[in-house]
Model the fold of this input.
Amino acid sequence: MNAATMQVTRLVTPLTDQAIAGLKAGDRVLLSGVIYTARDAAHKRLVETLASGSELPLVLSGQVIYYAGPAPARPGQVIGPAGPTTASRMDAYTLPLLAAGLKGMIGKGNRSPEVRQAIMSCRAVYLVAVGGAAALISERIKKMELVAYADLGTEAIYRLEVEHLPLVVANDIHGGDLYEQGVAAFRKMEAPK
Done:
């Protein structure tokens, strides 16, 4: 099947077990609804808040965190360029957030074995956005508002309303891994015949 005939799954947040149960690594997705931005420093604060037993600034159950620090918006725009950051930078903080109900993550690059295992056991999904397409991604963001940690500037937590954000499933609840599949396919192509 070529890319032009591949089916696209439409997802709406908050995510449910039923919505992500059929997703497989490599599937294309159009995501709509509310998502939250958070990078390293915000993740650290969220995990520290959980550990202290204090209330989080957002309800994680069913939510999606986008690993991004959007650039400031130009006049007349909702948001500036909003490309994904490398997901592995959040791996040290991901397990407690998944245990607290986080259902989806958006970034770029692969995840650690521990995070991939937690994605399966917590029934979550890791989606990847195209790096280098920050300006195009920002066109899918219809509204943005500050939620927490304003002192972090562009790395604060923002609530975004997105419409048909194009993503690809990298890690699914069944243990599928887009990056491992890509390496295997490449090795198969280069094997002598």
